[in-house]
Specification:
Blueprint (H helix, E strand, L loop, with lengths): L2 E7 L1 H4 L6 H12 L3 E8 L3 H14 L2 E5 L10 H9 L3 E3 L1 H14 L12 E3 L3 E3 L8 E6 L2 E6 L3 H20 L3 E9 L4 H14 L4 E7 L2 E10 L2 H19 L3 E4 L4 H22 L4
Parallel strand pairs: 1-2, 1-3, 3-8
Antiparallel strand pairs: 4-5, 6-7, 7-8, 9-11, 9-12, 10-11
Helix pairs in contact: 2-6, 3-4, 7-8
Length: about 280
Amino acid sequence: GVRAEIVGIGTEILLGQIANSNAQWISQRLAEIGIDVLHHQVVGDNVDRIAGAFRQALDRANVVIATGGLGPTGDDVTRHGVARALGLRIERRSEIEDFLREKFRRLGREMPESNLVQADVPAGARYILPDRGTAPGLALEADGRRLYAVPGVPAEMREMMEGTILPELREAAGPATLVSRVLRVTGIPEARVGELLDDLFLESENPTLAYLASAGEVRLRLSAKAETREEAEALIEPLEKEIRARLGDSVFGSDQEELEAVVGRLLAERKLIVSCAESLTGGG
């Protein structure tokens, strides 16, 4: 299968000034098309460290997606990090220059000359011109591996992911869908749930079983990969059945159903049963 790694670039992420929500969004989108994300990295605005992060990522993944560091200022050094990692020279593309000048002209603004660094790309790279913003994205292939770099601004990142990168990766991954179902368990400690389901956890590869502990409950995530959603759900079904058989009434809901909502629903059902019984017996 296709193995992916996501690299977040920006000292502000490391300082905790912003959350790396891009990585979460990209991971969700890749999971939907059946691509396994095996690692996340975050690296600051330093060419050597960025190059090192890319080398490590390309060593263990087929697809690397980097976000951030493509702007026009001095600390935007992703393109140089890519070039250094792959031993490529940087070249200026006149067609990106023309695009940038035209973009500023349409905005009715004077273009700072510093913006022209956004026309620099590693030799041989494809570029992805933006609708939003001014930062072009990059796409390269090296030894059968793909490397994409997109802006860190979430709307600009999503535009390039949805318009260009996800369609390319969907084709590369072939038909595959990942379906996850979360079973919610209460009243049994996580360790005991683990004991009761240990053989299922160890033996099940597709679907897989994972534990997500949270306050007051244990969540069990069942995930299956198949060509269609229907096939993936059919794979999950027998595993879910077996888990429910073993844990009984401790499984109180599935997917995103909140405990309060389930209790509310059960109370409503009980009230309905009581009121039906009363009407049948004349309330006596």
